[in-house]
Design goal:
The strands form nine sheets. The chain has a seven-stranded parallel sheet with strand order 13-14-11-15-16-10-17, sandwiched between helices. By secondary structure, it is α/β, with parallel strands linked by helices. Helix 2 crosses helix 3. The protein folds into five domains: 109 residues, GIY-YIG endonuclease (3-Layer(aba) Sandwich), CATH 3.40.1440; 66 residues; 182 residues, Rossmann fold (3-Layer(aba) Sandwich), CATH 3.40.50; 178 residues, P-loop containing nucleotide triphosphate hydrolases (Rossmann fold), CATH 3.40.50.300; 91 residues, Ribosomal protein S10 (Alpha-Beta Plaits, 2-Layer Sandwich), CATH 3.30.70. The chain is built from 23 helices and 34 strands. It binds adenosine-5'-diphosphate and zinc ion (2 copies).
Length: 732
């Protein structure tokens, strides 16, 4: 007995078997292809399921299987390779299949709506129609005329028939006789044009030749090129190659790295159909891009994380820009890494993939060392400017004005007077991270999280940056009614206020998620700045991704110390990446850049490393440390998290899980914890975690499978949620 094996939107990590819809013939059943949608009863609801396979028999007695209700698609929505990728991802990340498919499909398809035809309605002859002898249909001249039109032109639009006074009912008659059929035809041409490109530098040429010269099929290349070395130019050349061969290129960029500037560069180079996929699209726009990629109309697909699952009619190349960026890892729900999924996808399609970065992740460097990835390097900037000159600014015992030392202020003044731009980096938005009472010591804390509230003076509010909670900024201390409330610490709003009074003659631009909320704000800003007039840019991490500010000649990190003391095992790697990327904003045109790092710890080894060694060297030194500690990428890491309104419940759950699983762990795998999460309480929930380390991926996968099946078997506890995170980003 054939059963339909479906992925269903459900938190359970397994597939679900159904019987074919009542009345479906056996031949029709055998013809069903994986990748179609079906409507099926599930519990008391009807839901949309995705066909994974038509199988023989079921683990469940056939008598208790339900019939599927309706088949929604004639042909699969995705091909076997993408289906394979989804199955792999559901298995590797130990995540429910149904949810993985939810990531894949646009909303209207998830809701069970029909595919939306793109293009215009046209008619063509069926094979029966084509076989019609001449002068057939003598009794209906209008029908004969329609047929003869189609014989001449193969495809005829509805409107053309109307011009020949052939009505819809005549067409319907012919359709009923199975002589003609309608279809949606896209006007769009499959042609593209490549516009002029610049001559490559010697280094770029070598890298490009190495990539294009690699043997056909799957190949992963790490392109490690310093900021401004012309990585994007290499992407463009590879894409050109890919399009020439009639294939599509998929380009992934970090969450906020998809700037209009980036897009403009692609559009300038190619007169081609570029589909864009990111979180800011409406459902309809998303569907359109998705469908264009799927039916082959889009030549180039550029998107953020989830675009890695876009169906492609003819994939030829994948590029992951800024491959080290943590936004490629989804931090909730389906916790996949788009970079890693991209590599797997390239392997399944047997196509090349390029990972590019000025500051590659230790994972990718490790893969290069192990010989799994090819390695190309660009060590010089493409433009005439050299690498920026980095200096540490010791601010101990120095007077600071909204975080800025006298020496920094002088350096800024000097650049501005020369007509150049300066960029200040401060990774904390708001006015101040703490509100404190001078009389009694009260501190504003979030009632739902273990965190302090940030003062946002412009909007007169106290806000929690972890749960989003917000309240009016109090005038008086809630504890002692004193009016002596002090904002302690530094945020971008405060520094902006200071700059506006001290640098009156120059424009100041603040760039953070508060000031850049409106659509297009970033674009307007980039346009303004790139006119090149002297100005001060002040911003958070937002400033460091994907933007080109050629006029900036001085970059200063106001509070480097905030980066120094991270407790996460990736802390130093992140710091080196961030500082290198920030520093890379300086001197991208022909003006040499300088970088000043303000710190109270000028002798800290991580500070010194920034001055004396390149990122490439720092990364390799950090990799040695990871080898000693067994942390990724040297070893494997998995974390199980709980989140519960009861403080004890999660810890008990993980403790039981640990006791049940420990005796069965594969060799070398270890459990650590349960431990409270770094921020134990967040949005009213207590959070706890159990860590798993393992020497190999295989052992980690076996152990993760064991933990998941044990966790699923434990009795559900009211309000307790648990999740598993394979290759987590942050753990401590
Ligand atoms: P990256 O992506 O490595 O940061 P980009 O590709 O953005 O670097 O290039 C940095 C700058 O150098 C850009 O303004 C780009 O136009 C320019 N550039 C890149 N390649 C060349 C080249 N071969 N000749 C001249 N300029 C180049
Ligand atoms: Zn008080
Ligand atoms: Zn909060």
């Amino acid at each position: 007995m054939s059963v339909l094996r479906l992925a269903i939107p459900s938190p359970l990590r397994r597939h679900f078997d159904y019987l074919a819809p009542i009345g479906l013939s056996n031949t029709a059943l055998a013809g069903l292809q994986p990748g179609i949608r079906l409507r099926v009863p599930f519990g008391r609801r009807n839901v949309i399921g995705y066909l994974l396979a038509v199988g023989k028999g079921s683990d469940i007695p056939l008598s208790s299987l339900k019939h599927a209700l309706e088949i929604l698609d004639e042909a699969p929505l995705i091909g076997p390779q993408l289906l394979h990728l989804c199955n792999w991802a559901a298995g590797y990340y130990h995540h429910p299949h149904g949810d993985v498919f939810g990531t894949l499909f646009p909303k209207r398809l998830r809701e069970g709506k029909p595919q939306q035809p793109q293009g215009t309605l046209v008619w063509q002859l069926t094979s029966r129609g084509r076989g019609l002898p001449e002068a057939a249909l003598p009794r209906s001249p209008r029908q004969a005329q329609a047929i003869s039109l189609l014989m001449q032109k193969a495809i005829v639009k509805n409107t053309e028939f109307r011009d020949h006074s052939i009505s819809a009912s005549i067409l319907r008659n012919l359709q009923d006789k199975k002589l003609i059929e309608s279809l949606y035809h896209s006007e769009h041409s499959h042609l593209f044009k490549v516009n002029d490109s610049m001559p490559l530098s010697a280094e770029q040429r070598i890298a490009l030749n190495a990539i294009t010269g690699a043997e056909k099929g799957f190949n992963c290349h790490l392109l490690e090129g310093v900021t401004g070395s012309g990585k994007t130019e290499i992407y463009l050349r590879l894409i050109e190659d890919c399009l020439q061969q009639g294939h599509q290129a998929l380009v992934l960029v970090p969450e906020i790295g998809l700037t209009p500037q980036t897009l403009a560069r692609f559009q300038q180079r190619f007169d081609a159909n570029i589909a864009v996929l990111h979180s800011g699209l409406s459902d309809a726009q998303r569907y359109q891009s998705w469908d264009a990629a799927r039916n082959g109309n889009a030549h180039i697909i550029i998107g953020t994380r989830s675009a890695v699952f876009t169906p492609l009619a003819s994939p030829g190349l994948i590029i992951v820009d800024e491959e080290h960026d943590s936004s490629y890892k989804q931090q909730d729900g389906f916790r996949y890494s788009a970079r890693d999924v991209a590599v797997k996808r390239a392997q399944i399609h047997s196509i090349p993939i390029l990972l590019g970065s000025a500051t590659p992740s230790l994972e990718s460097i490790q893969n290069v060392i192990a010989g799994r990835y090819h390695h190309q390097q660009l060590t010089q900037r493409a433009s005439s400017a050299g690498m920026p000159d980095i200096k540490v600014l010791d601010v101990r015992r120095q007077e600071l004005h909204a975080g800025l030392s006298e020496r920094l202020l002088e350096a800024m003044q000097e650049k501005l007077l020369l007509g150049q731009q300066t960029l200040l980096f401060l990774n904390r938005r708001g006015y101040a991270p703490t509100l404190q009472c001078h009389d009694c010591g009260w501190i504003g804390e979030c009632s739902a999280c273990d965190s302090r509230l940030t003062v946002h003076r412009r909007r007169g509010r106290l806000r929690c940056h972890h749960c989003g909670d917000s309240s009016l900024l109090p005038r008086q201390c809630p504890q002692c009614n004193s009016e002596k409330l002090m904002a302690a610490g530094l945020g971008t709003e405060q520094t902006e206020d200071f700059l506006r009074t001290s640098f009156k003659q120059w424009p100041i631009y603040r760039v953070d998620s508060d000031s850049m909320q409106s659509k297009g704000a970033m674009q307007t800003l980039a346009n303004d700045i790139n006119k090149g007039d002297p100005c001060i840019l002040l911003g958070t991490q937002m400033l460091t991704k994907g933007h080109h500010f050629p006029g900036v000649s001085l970059v200063a990190v106001i509070d480097s110390d905030a980066l120094l003391f991270s407790t996460d095992f990736r802390g130093e790697e992140r710091m080196a990446q961030l500082l290198t990327q920030v520093a890379g904003r300086a001197g991208r045109a022909d003006i040499p850049g300088s970088v000043l790092l303000q710190t109270h710890y000028p002798d800290h080894p991580a500070m010194l490393a920034m001055l004396t060694t390149s990122y490439a060297e720092q990364a390799r030194a950090l990799l040695k440390q990871r080898q000693e500690s067994g942390m990724p990428p040297a070893g494997q890491l998995v974390v199980l998290r709980t989140d519960c309104s009861d403080a004890e419940c999660g810890e008990q759950f993980l403790q039981t899980l640990r006791e049940r699983s420990a005796p069965f762990l594969p060799y070398g795998a270890k459990l650590i914890g349960p431990l409270p999460s770094p921020m134990q309480r967040r949005a009213g929930k207590y959070r706890c975690q159990l860590l798993l380390t393992a020497p190999t991926r295989g052992a980690a996968q076996t152990a993760a499978g064991l933990l998941v099946s044990n966790a699923e078997a434990l009795p559900a506890r009211h309000g307790l949620k648990w999740s598993i995170d394979i290759d987590p980003q942050n753990v401590f």
